[in-house]
Amino acid sequence: MSEKKNTFSSSIGFILAAAGSAVGLGNIWRFPYLAAKDGGGTFLLIYIILALSFGFTLLITEISIGRKTKHSCLKAYGRLHSKFKWLGLLASFVPFLIFPYYCLIGGWVLKYCTTYLAGHGIAASGDSYFTDYITGIYPPIIFFVIFLLATSIVVYRGVNSGIEKLSKILMPMLLVLLLVIAIFSLTITGNEGRTGFDGLMIYLIPDVKSMTPGKVFHTLIDAMGQLFYSISVAMGIMVTYGSYLKDDDNLVGGVNKIEIFDTIVAFLAGIMIIPAVFAFFGSEGMQNSGPGLMFATLPKVFTSMGRLGNVLGIVFFLMVLLAALTSSVSILEAVVSCIMDYFKCSRKKAVIIETVIGLVLGVFISLGYNIFYIELKLPNGSTAQILDIFDYISNYILMPIVAISTCILVGWVVKPKTVIDEATKNDEKFGRKKLYLIMIKYITPVLLTILLLGSFGVFN
After folding, report:
1. Residue 416's Cα: distance from chain center in Å?
2. 145-159 pLDDT, tens per residue?
3. Binning pLDDT at 50, 70 and 90, where does residue 5 land?
4. Taking burial as the number of CB atoms within 10 A of a residue's CB, which of 29, 146, 210, 392 is the most buried?
């Protein structure tokens, strides 16, 4: 089919699309919290080391598999080795689970963006505002549907006219907005004379005194988990985008730029959030992560700034909305590519099929905060509603299993030479070749196994 043969028109299009996938909500609402919790500079140092080794290994492996096979993850693994067809099925199930609840969260971001645009930032900072919103029946569904349709329209338009074009527009915008807020955050003077610069020092300077061996181990787990979930591996996305990469494009160079872009955005997210929260609420203000940080703590920071806070709230949630949209587009593309591969249908039909399925599942998940409300204790110790259950199964169980299996396939079955040859087919320099060989065969699967065990609460 002609649609399946689409390719990115340029290397920069591929890099921005892949970076757009990697730069999502996790960079913004989880990275700053973990950095503040795990000793600031210590966390940053460990994260950067992992990005250059662990992250690089997983990224270049999946993108190489995609370009070599020219298929979605559903068929790509089976093309490498017939006994690993099951891995393709498992990998394709991950974005299928993630898509509906990611669009639901995207709807939450859209709601806050419109709230600040309407000048109601003070209302958004209320203690019960977020809870009242998500426990409502119709408003969350309405904003979810709008976000879902926006994502579907982009993917419906195809690789070049949709995904690549959107990425070239939104990614520079996102970076500019992120820089503006990060710089402004450093100029803030908050309560009790605390400044944004004071918060920056907490973010950058390692807290050596508290770094016991146990603390270092947990910081390693946190940094590895953040990186793993941030770079969009083990969910079919990078395999899919790799399949759209031209044979004469510099694959190694592209991977290097993606990891640099993702790390810079995560780092700037910390500068954007930690100094501002510290200035107004001190160290205690960073106790929240996830939705609690973005939808509860930060609106209070904006309100504390007076009129300027509403303007900053608009800029912030617009930036988050762009990050959420580029990620949701990549998640949907991974599913659509699998549907096209399996059913041999057109892109348009595949998008419609997954949009309808995502709509049904998304409504069901949204109603998990009211009509279908439950509280389930998960193995990692957290209490979950329906959205959390979807997230736990996809992110904390299936993704590590997919990644571990990929390491076994490449490291021991088809051998690392398969990836290295694909990545250097145009005589590119593979600067971390020796590191890659050690990582893919030994270190990465061990680290991923530790991450998986952590999901079952082994290290609680």
Report:
1. 26
2. 999 999 999 999 999
3. low
4. 29
Residue 169 contacts by C-beta under 8 Å, 6 or more apart in sequence? none
| 3-state secondary structure at position 384 | strand
> What tokens appear for 430 in the block?
């593979």
Alpha carbon of 38 to those of 322, 421, 457: distances in Å?
28, 39, 19
pLDDT at 408: 98
- Rounded mean pLDDT, 275-282: 91
Q: Which residues pair with 383 in a beta bridge?
A: 377
Q: How far apart are the first and last CA of the chain?
A: 49
Pairing of strands 383-384, 376-377: antiparallel
Q: Look up the pTM and report it.
A: 0.95
Residues 6+ apart with CB under 8 A from 430: 252, 420, 423, 424, 436
Q: What are phi and psi of 456, to 5 degrees?
A: -95, 10
DSSP symbol at 137:
S
Closest CA to 209 of 49, 36, 45, 42: 42
- Name the DSSP class of 293: I
76-80: long-range pairs with CB below 8 Å, 24+: 76/239, 76/243, 77/406, 77/409, 80/409, 80/410, 80/414, 80/418
Quick check: helix, strand or coil at residue 189?
strand
Convert 104-113 to b/e letters by CB count within 10 Å (16 or more is b). Answer: bbbbbbbbbb
Query: Can you read off the two tokens belonging to residue 83?
Result: 């006994």
Strand (E) or helix (H) holding 377 = strand 376-377
CA angle 34, 35, 36 (to 5 degrees): 90
Distance CA 108, CA 390 (A): 17
Handedness of CA 355, 360, 364, 367 (dihedral sign): positive
